[in-house]
Amino acid sequence: MNLEAHGATDVGRVRRQNEDAYLVDAGLRLAVVADGMGGHACGEVASQMAVHVFRDTIDMGRTSLVAHASEGRGAGTRRVRRLLRGAMRRASRAIYDEATRDPTKRGMGTTCTALLVSGETAFVAHVGDSRAYLLRSGRVVPLTRDHSLLNVLVEDGRLTEDEALSDDYAGYRGALARAVGIERDVVVDTAAFEALPGDAILLASDGLTRHVDDDEIGALLSDGSSDPAHRLVDLANERGGSDNISVVVTRFSGDGVDELQRCDDFAERLTAVRRLPLFRELTLTQALEVASSAPTVSVSAGDELLAPFADERVLYVVLSGRVRVVAPDDTASVIREGETFGALTCVRHEEAESRAIAVTESRLVRLEAEELVEILGRSALLDADVARAVRRST
Asked: How far is 394 from 391, CA to CA, in rounded Å?
C-alpha cells in the first residue's frame, strides 16, 4: 500500500510557547505526536526528546520490521509490539535521567502517541492523553484511551462520566495518571491491526480534541481535503485554541483487484469475530485487532485440520463449509458456518484429543491463543468457563 502523511503544529491562541512536537519519517513509515509538560520550556524539551529517541530506537530495530515482513502475523507482530514498547520506555528513561541530572527540568514529561506501518499492519503505541483515531468507511474509531486521572477514575467506577465533567473536578482535567518521563519506566498501550486502502489514521494532541469532537474529525477527514492536518488545526484555533495543537494525518491507498478482495476478506473476518459470544464485550478496536491477527484458511474436503486439538492452542471459526470433529471415542459432530472448534473450546481433558476433518471445501478463520492473550491480556479468555460458553454456542 501507498502511504501519504502530513503534519501540522501551532502554539494556539492562549499559550506563549509550543510544547508539542511531532515527527513524520517516510522511510520508516513512522509518525509520532507528543505533548510536553513541565513549564519553563521543559515540556518542549521532553516532547522533542520523546519523538527523537522513539524514532532512533525504531531505526535501530529495523531487523524486527524486516522479520515482521517475512513472518507476518503471530511472532512477527509480537516482535514489533515489543520494539514499540521498548522505544517508548527508552524515551521515558532518557527524559527521566535528564530531569534528574538538571534540577531545572525536574518534573518534565510528555504524552507520546505513535503510528508505525509494517507491511499491511498498522501499529499504535500510546502513553498519555494525546489520541489516535482510525477513519474507515466514513466511521471514526478511537484507537487509544486517555491515561488522564479522571478517565482512570471513571474506568474504575469511582466517578461517573457526568461527575468527571462537572465543575467540581475541573482542576483535575489536565492531570495525567501515566506519562513518558515522569518515572524511569512506563506502561505502554499498543494496538496492531490490518490497514486497508482508503483508511486514514489521525494522531493528535489534546489541543485538537478539546475543541473538535469525533464526528467533526470524521467529517473533515472524509471530505477529500488535500491538507486535513492544517484544516483541523485552524478549526481548533477558531474554537479558542486553548492549548498547543499538533496533528498528523496518514492516508492509505492501493489499487487493483487484490486490494478490493483484501477489504472484503477483512470485513468477513471482523463480522465472524464479533458474532462469537467470547468476543461480544470487545471494543471495536479490540475486535479489529483480533480480526487482523486471524488469517483466513481455505481447505478441501478430507483435509485434516487438527489432530489432536491439544497440539495447537487455536480456535477456528467456520465461514463456509462443514467440518467434522471426531472425539477419541469415535463419536462425531459436524461444525457449520458461524460455529467454532479447536483447543480453546475444550472443557474436559479428553476433548483435547479430538481431531477435525473438513467434510466439504471450507473457509475458516484461525485464531491463535498467544495472539489473543497479547491483545486482550491474561484474563478469563482461556478459563474453562469461557471455553464452556464457546462450546455451548456451537
From this structure: 5
Rounded CA separation 312/34 (Å): 41
* Torsion on CA atoms 55, 1, 251, 261, rounded to nearest 10: -140
Instruction: Give dist(CA 88, CA 99) in Å, integer.
Output: 17
- Beta strands (DSSP E) in 70-152 are 109-110, 112-118, 121-127, 131-136, 139-142
What is the spatial distance between Cα 33 and Cα 51, in angstroms, rounded to a whole number? 7
User: Is-contact 319 366, C-beta < 8 A?
Assistant: no
CA dist., res. 339 & res. 322, Å (int): 10
Q: What is the pLDDT of residues 336-389, one digit of tens each?
A: 998 999 887 776 667 788 999 999 999 999 998 888 888 887 544 444 344 444
Sign of CA dihedral 29, 35, 38, 43: positive
The percent of residues in the chain predicted with pLDDT above 90, rounded, is 61
Q: How far apart are CA 195 and CA 75, in angstroms?
A: 18
Place of cell 457449520: 336
**Distance between CA 200 and CA 248 in Å, rounded?**
10
Mean pLDDT of 257-282: 85
pLDDT winner (highest mean) among 59-63, 239-243, 315-319: 239-243
Partners of 22 in beta bridges? 33
